[in-house]
Write a sequence for this structure.
């Protein structure tokens, strides 16, 4: 173990010595076919240490992939045009918040928190020339840039804070890696469930052993695949670097998620679970445990929580999604207890949905409404609700606020006052904090 | 970051041969690689389709939609991975996977294994044939139609899901030169198609229209028969007519050619190459013709192409089972897994693929499976260990031929870093040495 720790120190020293522009990021070469990384990665925009310390705070991002229907989430109950556009899908029993808007009836717990003053509703978030492609628009949201590609916005934040020094500073909970967390000179951990980064070895390796020493020995050997000099201009070099950082993350994470906890939510015996997505409640329960652990992350990104792309069957599918979101957020803050004071949760999605329904669902839209939740939030409505009387040529909402103001708000929570270091321009945060 | 094309490294002939086999099939089968002496040999071997095509075993359709059991897809996955491991038609397996990723359809939404199984048969039937035929067939494939909501796309109530993804992902590509209006016009053209999911409340009515159980079919009154203007062409297009208009647009051939180039070469084609390959592809839509043009480009066997891609979890799985000799792969569902720290039931390989987010027939979305750096996250790297459970026992190498280089060769690896060799030399237990070789940085790329 001592040997392992000293190796970690060497690596950090080595990384510090690297000049700007020579360290290709583990995350720089996005080759996701639909979110092409355009050209050389170049240097990180900010360097580790530039952005300061959140001093114990955590920002949680919940991503609703597919495009959540904001109009059926925060319903414009006083606008008669809403029901004209949504003759069958319009919500008639929204939970009235202020006579003007209401929450979806399946968001009852969130409505209660809103009435307690812990929920900010932010209206009209979008950007110019809206991209109606999932992948095009996600590229814009993930990178926070006018174009797609490059580093993720939170990856840039990590570049400017912990760099490679703390692989548990940011944790993605979901089956894939969150592109928003991919930085040029930083490394975020990703876990699918509370087994953390503990591999299951085949029986022909560990049949004779019941303790975890075999795993530890193998993982130590594994981390030695990183040579003294890593050439990260080749992908194999990026893997060498990632292996060593993964081992470091595994080591720290196993201290945080003790054995008893690790067994707390083993996958259900129903093997069809392999073909289902995890629920937002599962993921946020794990988020709460990480926040209460010694290795408290400053960033948690929850994705793959359901299919919000409700072109069809929205009347059945969307309420179920709202119910899961409601349950997940509520149990998250409940289980955090007092620790919730240091936590803010923000929702994101690549776009909203078309105001006019298509008969059984809604097609891709533009501007959207999102939530900022937590005891530190000054509840209420922020931003301007887009008008249903003034739709664009495709029949979509016209955004009233740049979505990066939502990001600036999250960064503000992490005590980054000048959002331009991460977002390219200085976007004003919404004054949602007490 | 330097241009990967100018990486100054020497790549051995063996490694280049292995590279050709890896890229033109789903894994470098050690017996195949051992029998080849040059990259030209390897290309000729990989493109040889003279052996008979494997026959997909038939699957019995469920009695009704609600009786479908998602886990029945496991037998199709097992059969498929066996083809990836051992089919003599190497390029066919690469292309079948490529088209599954291209026309990504998930059983998580479709729910009926029979429909996914039938789609797999359709992909196989056209994988090495004509792209135009493949596109027309996939556009009427019941699983894909259901996945992209074709059944609710009707005149007056146009659902844009299939129309948009068809233009963006299946044909022209994002930025390929279509507009939102083209999405609407394509969707209007595609309207009127439905899928008969047996045992749902529409079944009887659909059967009266002559649409049999588990088939797709066209219902004229649901079709928007009006004139459309699609990509600058005017006409009362139907589904096939609109697809022909889309195939006519030069972006389609260039996009598909560029994507296949990236799959096989591992690098992005430059604009000239994409245009040259695409314009030639559009003349007859011959997929094998396109493959031949790509692999004869000298970039394909260049040092910069070798190990320029991240190896996918399915490619890792195939490489592991190939290295294990003729051990049958166990991906069976249900049942008791090995005593796991996870304490869960189910097959460990299935669990691993789930944890990594990479199960055949379960792409995360219509954009296909994650690629590149998205596969280099901690959980993807760590849980590669779990894929070793695909082997019932550690591969046994003959005495005296079980050193680090022998183990690496089983996995199709020839040129490795000193650090890699050192780790394997230090490990004296053969089973652990094999496991570590499969976890090496070199095996994580391809």
């Amino acid at each position: 173990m001592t040997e392992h720790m000293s190796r970690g120190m060497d690596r950090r020293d080595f990384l510090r010595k690297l000049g700007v522009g020579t360290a290709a990021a583990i995350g720089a070469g996005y080759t996701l076919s639909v979110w092409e990384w355009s050209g050389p990665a170049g240097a990180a925009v900010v360097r580790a240490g530039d952005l300061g310390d959140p001093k114990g705070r955590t920002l949680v991002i919940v991503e609703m992939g597919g495009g959540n229907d904001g109009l059926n989430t925060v319903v414009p109950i006083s606008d008669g045009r809403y029901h004209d556009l949504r003759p069958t899908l319009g919500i008639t029993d929204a939970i009235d918040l202020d006579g003007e808007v209401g929450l979806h009836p399946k968001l009852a717990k969130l409505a209660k928190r809103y009435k307690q003053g812990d929920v900010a509703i932010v209206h009209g978030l979008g950007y110019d020339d809206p991209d109606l492609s999932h992948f095009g628009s996600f590229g814009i949201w993930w990178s926070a840039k006018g174009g797609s590609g490059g580093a993720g916005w939170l990856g840039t934040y990590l570049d400017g804070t912990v760099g490679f020094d703390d692989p548990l500073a940011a944790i993605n909970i979901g089956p894939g890696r969150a592109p928003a967390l991919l930085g040029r000179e930083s490394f975020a951990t990703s876990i699918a469930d509370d087994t953390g980064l503990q591999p299951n070895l085949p029986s022909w390796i560990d049949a004779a052993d019941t303790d975890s020493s075999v795993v530890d020995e193998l993982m130590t050997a594994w981390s030695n695949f990183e040579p003294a000099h890593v050439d990260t201009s080749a992908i194999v070099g990026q893997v060498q670097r990632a292996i060593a950082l993964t081992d470091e993350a595994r080591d720290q994470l196993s201290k945080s998620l003790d054995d008893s906890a690790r067994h707390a939510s083993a996958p259900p015996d129903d093997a069809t679970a392999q073909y289902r997505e995890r629920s937002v409640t599962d993921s946020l329960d794990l988020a709460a445990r990480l926040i209460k652990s010694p290795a408290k992350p400053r960033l948690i990104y929850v994705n793959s929580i359901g299919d919000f792309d409700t072109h069809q069957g929205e009347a059945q599918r969307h309420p179920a999604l709202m119910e899961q979101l409601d349950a997940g957020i509520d149990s998250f803050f409940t289980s955090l207890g007092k620790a919730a004071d240091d936590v803010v949760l923000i929702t994101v999605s690549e776009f909203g949905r078309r105001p006019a329904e298509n008969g059984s669902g809604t097609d891709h839209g533009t501007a959207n409404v999102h939530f900022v939740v937590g005891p530190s939030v000054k509840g209420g409505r922020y931003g301007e609700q887009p008008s249903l009387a003034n739709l664009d040529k495709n029949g979509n909402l016209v955004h009233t606020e740049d979505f990066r103001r939502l990001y600036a708000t999250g960064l503000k929570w992490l005590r980054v006052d000048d959002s331009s270091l991460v977002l390219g321009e200085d976007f004003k945060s919404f004054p949602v904090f007490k | 970051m330097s241009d990967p094309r100018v990486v100054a490294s020497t790549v051995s002939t063996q490694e280049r041969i292995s590279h050709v086999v890896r890229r033109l099939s789903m894994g470098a089968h050690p017996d195949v690689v051992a029998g080849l002496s040059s990259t030209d040999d390897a290309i000729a071997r990989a493109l040889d389709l003279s052996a008979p095509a494997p026959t997909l075993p038939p699957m019995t359709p469920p009695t009704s939609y609600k009786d479908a059991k998602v886990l029945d897809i496991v037998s199709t996955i097992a059969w498929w991975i066996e083809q990836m491991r051992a089919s003599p038609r190497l390029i066919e397996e690469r292309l079948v996977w490529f088209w599954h990723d291209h026309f990504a359809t998930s059983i998580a939404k479709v729910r009926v294994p029979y429909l996914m199984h039938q789609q797999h048969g359709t992909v196989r039937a056209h994988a090495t044939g004509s792209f135009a035929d493949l596109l027309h067939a996939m556009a009427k494939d019941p699983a894909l139609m259901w996945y992209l909501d074709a059944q609710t796309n009707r005149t007056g109530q146009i659902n844009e899901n299939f129309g948009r993804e068809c233009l963006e992902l299946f044909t022209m590509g994002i930025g390929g030169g279509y507009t939102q209006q083209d999405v609407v016009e394509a969707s209007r053209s595609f309207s009127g198609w439905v899928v008969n999911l047996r045992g749902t409340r529409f079944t009887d009515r659909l059967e009266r229209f002559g649409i049999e159980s588990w088939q797709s079919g066209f219902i004229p009154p649901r079709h928007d028969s009006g004139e459309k203007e699609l990509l600058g062409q005017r006409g009362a297009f139907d589904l096939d007519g609109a697809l022909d208009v889309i195939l006519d647009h030069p972006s389609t051939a260039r996009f598909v050619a560029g994507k296949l180039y990236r799959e096989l070469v591992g690098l992005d084609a430059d604009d000239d190459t994409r245009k040259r390959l695409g314009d030639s592809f559009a003349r007859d839509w011959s997929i094998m013709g396109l493959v031949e043009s790509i692999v004869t480009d000298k970039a394909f066997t260049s040092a910069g192409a070798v190990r320029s891609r991240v190896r996918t979890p399915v490619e890792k799985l195939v490489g592991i089972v190939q290295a294990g000799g003729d051990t049958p792969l166990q991906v069976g569902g249900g049942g008791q897994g090995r005593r796991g720290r996870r304490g869960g039931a189910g097959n460990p390989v299935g669990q691993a693929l789930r944890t990594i987010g990479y199960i055949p027939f379960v792409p995360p979305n219509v954009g296909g499976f994650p690629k590149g750096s998205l596969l280099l996250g901690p959980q993807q790297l760590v849980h590669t260990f779990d894929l070793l459970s695909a082997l019932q026992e550690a591969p046994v190498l003959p005495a005296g031929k079980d050193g680090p280089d022998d183990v690496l060769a089983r996995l199709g690896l020839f040129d490795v870093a000193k650090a890699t060799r050192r780790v394997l030399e230090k490990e004296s237990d053969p089973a652990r040495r094999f496991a570590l070789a499969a976890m090496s940085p070199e095996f994580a790329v391809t």
